[in-house]
Amino acid sequence: MAGIGGLLYPVKQTLYVRRQPLRSDREYRGAGYLCVLTKTLGDAFGGKKMDHMSPRLRAFLSEPIGEKDVAWVDGVSHELAINLVTKGFNKAYILLGQFLLMHKNEAEFQKWLICCCGATEYEAQESSNCLKEWCSCFL
Length: 139
Known about the structure:
By secondary structure, this protein is of the alpha+beta class. It has helices spanning about 55-60, 80-85, 90-100, 105-115, 120-139, and strands at about 1-5, 5-10, 15-20, 35-40. It starts with a strand and ends with a helix. This is Barrier-to-autointegration factor-like protein.
């Protein structure tokens, strides 16, 4: 068991993500917040359990975007990644910027991905969900 801010949670059973202010230098930093992966705390994903997330989404949410290529975004296939790179969206943070420019409006972002980048409806939904979940954890 480990405790942060007076709350105890099992360290090895990780199912939910919750963000809270940093308490020490040893904790993981993400935009000034600590992302705590735990079974018992938080519902940063609206109660969505992490065991129902794809491995790509879980990997993407596990750390800040940094210099990740756009292909790291869950829902971006190889073909879509090529289309995005040719349009100048070669890094995940650039695609995130587009999502933020659209005021985190998932429907508008999905239409843009489909119309301008050649994404399928499924790819657009998964990509926008991935970026929305990342924002809820790190912003």
